[in-house]
Amino acid sequence: MKFNEKLIELRKKAGLSQEELGYKLDVTRQTVSKWELGETTPEMAKLVEMSKIFNITVDELTNDSEITTNVNPIIEDKPIQDKNPKDKKVLIIIVTVLIVVILGIVGKVATTFIAINKVNEFANQGVEQEAKGFFGKIFSLLNKAIDNQEDVLENLDNSDVENIKDGMENIFGGAANKVNASAFNGVFELYNGSNSGRQLTNLLEEVITSNKKEERKVTVKYLETETQDPTEIKNLKMGLNESDKFEVSFEYDKDGYIYELTIEKYENNNGTNEVINQNNEVFNQVNQFINDTMNQMN
User: Considering 21, 120, 154, 183, which has the largest number of Cβ atoms within 10 A of its Cβ?
Assistant: First the structure.
């Protein structure tokens, strides 16, 4: 069994979401997702922390053998603290570099507008050489700023650079992606948690529609069924009893998109009716708001 597969199994046995495990390891959910997808591997310090959480040895965690012992996870309210004092220094460096980059981007935008206006002014006056000289000064200043940022990065080790890259990706590269992910996830996340059979039927209809038209597919897991196929999901939906109660949870990929939907049926409905009724009320209120908004637009 590969490490990423073992990590998924251990996490689920411990009853932890990607976000909860990330909190305990003091990393982002995206980092945990990358580990589980096999795109990156955790450093030794994180492996040691994971072995403490799952109550197994590091060797059992990293070797290719199957998990043969019962996992008795040690669940704590707070994340395991990294004993390496270097982390605080790394965090300060990351924050400082990010601030410098943000200021640099703002400066570049402002400089670009100034340059455009200046060039237009020069062009109107027919002073081509002056425009070239002005642009030369601008690019010289930008190159110096970039060189200074590279000097800072050269003084960092690989783990520091990796942390900075993750931070840069989350703040800048992930900004537009988060908007798209929120739009994609929103229709599904309305059903997160406890649902009646009727609500679950509506959710599965949304998944069917999405899987037919979207490039990203959502996998539905219920009992022995695990599928992305709209026809199979429709058959699953037809077999649901609207009076039954279900629990819905989601898994997210490294980009923040929902890629897996897990459904669990309540075997004992005692104590859940109040929660279901509350969710039904919220669900009806949201539907009423949407209908009112659509009527106003029409």
Answer: 21
Q: Residue 73 falls within a domain, yes or no?
A: no
Strand partners, 260: 219, 251
pTM: 0.39
Tens digits of residue pLDDT in 27-85:
999 999 999 998 999 999 999 999 999 889 988 888 887 776 665 655 555 444 444 44
Please compute, for residue 120, the number of CA atoms within 13 A of its CA located in the half-sphere on the CB side.
6
Q: Apex CA 45: angle with CA 42 and CA 47, to 5°?
A: 55
If one counts the domains in the chain, the total is: 3
CA-based diameter of the chain, in Å?
A: 83
Q: How far apart are CA 41 and CA 3, in angstroms?
A: 9
Residue 78 lies in a domain: no
Q: Return the closest-CA partner of residue 220 out of 209, 208, 212, 104.
A: 208
State whether the Cα torsion 155-160-164-165 is positive or negative.
Answer: positive
Residue 141: left (phi > 0), alpha (psi -120 to 50), or beta?
alpha
